[in-house]
Design brief:
2 strands, about 70 residues, two-stranded antiparallel sheet, elongated, about 45% helix, 2 helices
Length: about 70
């Protein structure tokens, strides 16, 4: 009976330097690191409060809720 060669994972150019936690922008397929997405989200909340579009208690509640929901145990 013939044996099959072992399958090894090759790093392709698409995976070069990418993390599994990266976000992908749907239309243009650009990989965005998770820390950049977090800074953008919380910066957007801060900008909404500064512009007066949202009240700070609502933004605080949303920010804490998202932080708790995204918490991962190592």
């Amino acid at each position: 009976m013939a044996t099959r060669p072992a399958v090894t994972k090759r790093e392709t150019s698409a995976d070069n330097g990418r993390s599994p936690s990266d976000y992908v922008v749907p239309v243009v397929h650009v990989h965005v690191p998770e820390p950049v997405v977090k800074v953008g989200f919380y910066g957007g909340l801060a900008a909404a409060v500064a512009a007066g579009a949202l009240d700070w208690p609502l933004v605080l509640l949303a920010g804490v809720g998202v932080a708790i929901a995204r918490h991962r145990r190592a």
